[in-house]
Amino acid sequence: MKLENTDDALDVSTLPTFAFGTRSPMWWGTLGMIVVEGMVFALTIMTYFYLRSRSPTWPQQAPPPDLLWGSINAALMVASGIPNWWTKRAAEQLDLRRVRIGMAVCVAFGVACLLVRIGEFATLNVRWDTNAYGSVVWMLMGLHTMHLLTDTWDSAVLAVLMWTGPLEGKRFVDVAENAGYWYFVVISWLAVYAVVFWGARA
Amino acid sequence: MNAVDTDLELDATWRDPPGWRGFFAAVNHKTISLRFMVTTFGFFIAGGLLALAMRVQLAQPGSTLIGAHAYNQLFTMHGTTMMFLFAVPVMQAIAIYLVPLMIGARSVAFPRMNAFAFWIFLFGGVMLYVAYFFDAASDAGWFAYVPLSSFQYSPGKGVDFWAQMITFTEVSGLMEAIVLITTILKMRAPGMTLNRMPLFVWGVLVTSVMVLFALPAVVLASTALITDRLVDTRFYSPAHGGDVLLWQHLFWFFGHPEVYLIFIPPLGFISTIVATFARRPIVGYRTMVLCLIATGFLAFGLWVHHMFATDLPALGKIFFTAASLLIAVPTAVQIFCWIATLWSGRLWFRTPLLFVLGFFAILVLGGLTGLMLASVPLDLQVHDTYFVVAHLHYVLLGGAVFPLFGAFYYWFPKFTGRMLGETLGRWQFGLFFISFNVAFFPMHVLGLYGMPRRVYTYPQDAGWSNMNLMASIGALGIAISVLLFIINVWRSWRGGALAGNDPWRGGTLEWSMASPPPAANFPVVPVVHSLFPLWQPGGKPSHVTGLSTRYREVLITSVANAELDHRLWLPASSPWPFLAAVATTILFIGSIFSPWAVVWAALPVAVACTAWFWPEKDMTQQRSDSEQAP
Questions:
Q1: What is the distance between the alpha carbons of residues B310 and B439, in angstroms, rounded to a whole number?
Q2: Which of A10, A20, A26, A141 would best serve as a mutation to test chain B binding (most B beta carbons within 10 A)?
Q3: Do B568 and A43 make contact, defined as CB atoms within 8 angstroms?
Q4: What's the maximum distance between 2 C-alpha atoms anywhere in chain B?
Q5: Cβ neighbours of A19 in B, within 8 Å
Q6: Which of A6, A7, A12 to mutate to test the interface with B (most CBs of B within 10 A)?
Q7: Domain A64-198 bears CATH identifier 3.30.870.10
Q8: Closest listed residue to residue B502, CA positions, set B489, B514, B488, B493
Q9: How sure is the predictor about B629, in pLDDT bands with cuts at 50, 70 and 90?
Q10: How far apart are CA B452 and CA B455, in angstroms?
């Protein structure tokens, strides 16, 4: 909308009361969080390779983590992108019925990822206090699990709200941003997965 | 409804609720900012008193007043306080007040998150001092190098409290950065394109983006330190495949940009003050903006110059020498632009301008010793000596505290509605300027004579006694000048001259409304047509209509050109940010004593955050009644 009004006052009463994507402050706030947390992941990954570069052997006196559970989770998370994409689109179309279904599916995926995560921790084949390799692996896994946990909780709260109310248009923006943040959780997992599971093998 | 009724309704809508409940529920950006400023200033006083204690100890050789352990705690607490509890947060605190006023907004973007960030900062700082009073303060220096700060060499809880203080303050700093970025990009008054944004706001934007990239490094570093200490991770333990230089890399990857987090907002103060007191726009506005951005980028390429005394490859060090020299260029360009502005303006000598002129002298000296330290051979010679102490105080006090006092004199009338005393202000400036040089200039020489930093005493025959005494006298002078400032504030508060809307005849929007500003900032949201709307009035349309006065409705505009986008209702005042901060504090402090606190204390945090988010039925009903879909 251009500023073409030649009157002395610019009337804004007809403007919409919420908006999606880069138009919404919520998008920028979420982007800020993603930059911060992406930076934490990036620095932790750099720490991993820094320690590796200073170490004669890698992994340090421990077998690499088992591939099974981590790979299952990678597949699961990539698959979870689909319901999140579907829910995001439903939210942008203000389709409450589909949002309700979509949010429930997204939460179910989050819970499934967390359950698989237990298997991953059990087969890392190193403890955090064994050596620095173990410490950085647990740090990466811990960081990502924190994201899984908090975003699954967020999604659950939002899902309940979408089912029970009180509702207003702005909540559709929240649903869309929540899905956008989940993409970040998925993409950061692909990076963490590549480092933890394949960085110990390459 | 007439204009007076509208103003009253607007005020009632935006004001926080009264009483003690309202105190904890406050979210108005001006209220939060004032609390933030007072808190950081309190920490500045505390850190200054610690410094004074050190100078008393060092005033004469062989002093037995303060022992080695207590002295180590003193310099650790002094550095930590000034860096983490004063210099970075005070800039954010001021920005939280001024940015909405300068860009024509009625609030910051996420008012509740803003409140949370304040509370968590307060609790983290208070925790550090409570620990100090129980003799549980770290004594490993403000940058806490491993292995000294590892459990083996620093048993006890001191370093744990230090590391957790980092978590508190950095969480706060990161949240404030997100609040500020979003506010600046999405809430500027219509017509305030990026080209018309005040230089101070540009400085805040660049700083806030830097915060997002720099602060995570210290959060990671201190988290790894505390897990090394509490649950036996091995990040910094060479015996178990860890590496001690990892700490230095992570810490200085944050620590050097941090210097610019402290320095760039004051560049904005200076640009504002210089324009007002030279009575003309700044020369080279676009150049200034580009310099701010260039400084923001280059600041990330300097961290290794803190590590020249380590065994890093020489080629790498050369790169960091080059970058350290290069960053002087954008700063120098800005200084030339200011000189040109002052040269071609009609100068009006008032206390704010005096502090800015003081900045020029002192920062240039500090910058020049910075260039000296950027060269590896010289750095090796004076590493860990008082030369470095002199340099960093010239840069930080010259670059940040001088402009900060100028800014306080300049904006105090807006914050309180009353002027600070001009005579007392000049005395404060004069005493501060002279005492500062008396205190810190001799430290250059002391460093060249070989006096190491962080020693609690020195022998008579070292030949350092006179200059140390001089430095201590200077420190006393600084303390007296800060006392003059406090007296000035107190007198002005009790009955200073009324300021009116615009005592300095400034050009930016914050001078358009009453002082102190009403709860909603702008009775009428302006439309902006120039860089200095108050100096170049006119232009149509002049203001916005159609925003609700009954709800906290704000205008959201586009990122680059501030074109109309949509209207948004901001949330009501709420105690939940305060309660969430309490819950988070329990988690952070609990985790120092038991790792399981991270698990059980997560529950109250989750409950508080959920309650914070959960919408109210009435409010939602009203909102959806007046809703317009995009």
A1: 30
A2: A10
A3: no
A4: 82
A5: 556, 565-566, 630
A6: A12
A7: no
A8: B514
A9: confident
A10: 7
Residue with tokens 């129980």, as numbered in its chain: B134
CA distance B121 to B559: 29
Q: Could you tell me where the DSSP H helices lie in B15-157? A: 19-25, 29-58, 68-80, 88-103, 111-133
Residue range B189-201: average pLDDT? 97
Q: What is the ipTM of this complex?
A: 0.95
Residue of B nearest to A152 (CA): B606
Q: Considering only CB atoms, which chain A residues are within 8 Å of B215?
A: 36
Which residue does chain B place closest to A136, by CA atoms? B235
pLDDT value at position B540? Answer: 87
Where do the domains of chain B lie, and which CATH numbers do they carry? 3-34+87-301+504-625 (1.20.210.10), 349-499 (no CATH)
A-B C-beta contacts closer than 8 Å: 209
Among the partner residues A3, A47, A138, nearest to B190 by beta-carbon distance: A3
Residues of A in contact with B190 (CB under 8 A): 3, 10
Question: Which element (helix H / strand E) includes B543?
Answer: strand B543-545
**Would the CA dihedral through B250, B293, B317, B379 be positive or negative?**
negative
CB A158 within 8 A of CB B610: no
Tally of CB atoms within 10 A around B494: 8
Pairing status of strand B543-545 against strand B564-569 = unpaired
Distance CA A107, CA A84 (A): 10
Report the predicted TM-score, pTM, of the whole model to 2 decimal places. 0.96
Sequence spans of domains, chain A: 64-198
- The model's pLDDT over B521-550, given as tens digits with 9 standing for 90+, comes to 999 999 999 999 999 988 889 999 999 999
DSSP class per residue in A28-85: HHHHHHHHHHHHHHHHHHHHHHHHHHT-SSSSTTSPPPPHHHHHHHHHHHHHHHHHHH
Nearest-by-CA chain B residue for A1: B564
- CB-CB contact of B273 with A162 (8 Å): no
Whether residues A16 and B220 touch (CB distance < 8 A) is answered with: no
Mean pLDDT value of segment B432-456: 97
Q: Please give the structure tokens belonging to residue A19.
A: 């908006």
Whether B541 sits inside 8 A of A5 (CB atoms) is yes
> Residue B301: which H helix or E strand, with range?
none
In the structure, what pLDDT confidence band is assigned to residue B1 with cuts at 50, 70 and 90? low
Measure B376 CA to nearest chain A CA, in Å.
24
CB contact under 8 A, A134 and B617: no
Q: What is the pLDDT of residues B200-215, one digit of tens each?
A: 999 999 999 999 999 9
User: b or e along B144-163 (b: 16 or more beta carbons within 10 Å of the residue's beta carbon)?
Assistant: bebbbbbbeebeebbbbbbb
Pairing outcome for strands B543-545 and B553-557: unpaired
Strands (E), A83-156: none
Tokens of B166: 């980092």
B234/A23 touch (CB, cutoff 8 Å), yes or no = no
Of B250, B610, B621, the CB nearest to A166: B621
Beta carbons within 8 Å of A160's beta carbon, 6+ residues apart: none
Closest chain B residue to the Cα of A128, Cα to Cα: B233
Judging contacts by C-beta atoms under 8 Å, the chain A residues touching residue B109 are 25, 28-29
Residue type, B276: T
Query: What does the pLDDT read at residue A96?
Result: 96
Phi, then psi, of B557 in degrees rounded to 5: -125, 175
The answer to whether B216 contacts A39, with C-beta atoms less than 8 Å apart, is yes
Numbers of helices and strands, H then E, in chain B: 22, 3
Write out the two tokens for A159.
């899902």
Query: How far apart, in Å, are the Cα atoms of B541 and each of A138, B58, B375, B509, B520?
Result: 59, 64, 56, 16, 21
Cα(A187)–Cα(A74) distance, integer angstroms: 10
